[in-house]
Amino acid sequence: MSTTRRQHSDWLMELDGLRALAMLLVLIAHFNPWLDYIFPPIAAIKQLSLGNLGVMLFFTLSGFLITSLGLRDLQRYGNIRYVHFIVYRIFRIWPAYFFAVLLATIVTARWEFVPARPGASTTPE
What we know:
- The chain is mainly alpha-helical.
- It folds into two domains: 76 residues; 34 residues.
- Helices cover 68% and strands 0% of the residues.
- Helix 2 runs antiparallel to helix 4.
């Protein structure tokens, strides 16, 4: 991608790092029950409630970006194009959503040995 394209793009590349951080915090929170077994030194993270911080960061970024898009539409077109906004979001988010659902289905179908809770037996009784 050329520098000219970056200057005129609506993409705020600076926010990618914050998105990645928020995603990492939420993922760590989801794997909290298994942290003791996977990597004991990192288990202390459980006490920090980082998942909540990650979700708040996502909501803050989303609010900022949605407001920015609305203000940009207002400036360019004189109104906010809600239908365009919704359709664009659907086509942008749904492929990743359905891929994640498919991947989760495949992983959970193949990894039957993962216990329902930490310390639970994986063998039938």
